[in-house]
Amino acid sequence: MHQTDFPASAPENEARSAGAVEQIFCAQASGTAMHAVDTATAVAERGLDRDRYGRGTGSFHDDCQVTLIAGEHLDRITAEFGVRVLHGEHRRNIVTRGLDHALLVNRRFRVGEALLEYQQQRLPCAYLVEITEPRMGEALGEQAGICARVIEGGAIHVGDTVILVD
Predict the structure, then answer these.
(1) Which fold has domain 26-164?
(2) What is the pTM (predicted TM-score) of this model?
């Protein structure tokens, strides 16, 4: 298996607590700058209340409600590519730390008070490169994050634990 491919499912004996929220980013509308926030409320079947997708002002219409990316991957691409990603330039909502996103595939997981469900990988697109910088797509590559659906709404805070549910 290629190192960036996600396995079909995680082992059943994985720990339920899988990592933590390191940062939260939201943009008010499509193409506007992402801003770090300490808390956001996930709204069932919509997204984050402070973000473009939760407000219905995002540019994509693929039902991606909340996006997550691993902080460890951002560290690596900053070092290897010199691409700016520390202030939300990656255009993902939740940055996690200590969480192998492969564990989330085909599972539900709790982030703070919200219950999310894995939908798909979130690969970089031409629009992301257009509004950020030329090497962003290459830098993010196949580990550009995931999309999740909001099953149950609730508050998400920086520092909240990510807990695998099923």
Answers:
(1) M1 Pyruvate Kinase; Domain 3 (2.40.33)
(2) 0.82
Assigned token pair, 153: 């709404």
Average pLDDT over residues 6-34: 71
The structural domains of the chain, with segments of one domain joined by +, span 26-164
Structure tokens at 25: 């980013």
Look at residue 6 and tell me whether its pLDDT is greater than 60.
no
Give the closest residue to 22 by CA, choosing from 59, 69, 63.
69
For the beta carbon of residue 47, count every other beta carbon within 10 angstroms: 27
Tens digits of residue pLDDT in 37-60: 999 999 999 999 999 878 776 666
Q: Among positive and negative, which fits the CA dihedral 12, 24, 53, 123?
A: negative
Q: Render the burial of 23-40: b for 16+ CB within 10 Å, e for the rest.
A: bbbbbeeeeeebeebeeb
Contact 155, 113 (CB under 8 A): yes
